[in-house]
Inverse folding.
């Protein structure tokens, strides 16, 4: 991968590890258009373990 992309990827990894970046921060929308987490809010561990939906951009349905 190009050096500039590698630097951005490494920064993202470090920010996630340090808690500076939370990839489950709103706004988050499921793949049916329903808002799951509004802007400024973050999924907690319980909500992450209880996810029963796909986020926007993921095609498909949760198996029943």
């Amino acid at each position: 991968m190009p050096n500039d992309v590698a630097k951005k990827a490494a920064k993202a990894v470090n920010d996630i590890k340090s808690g500076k970046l939370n990839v489950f921060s709103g706004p988050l929308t499921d793949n049916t258009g329903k808002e799951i987490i509004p802007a400024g809010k973050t999924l907690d561990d319980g909500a992450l373990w209880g996810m029963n939906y796909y986020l926007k951009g993921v095609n498909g349905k949760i198996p029943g």
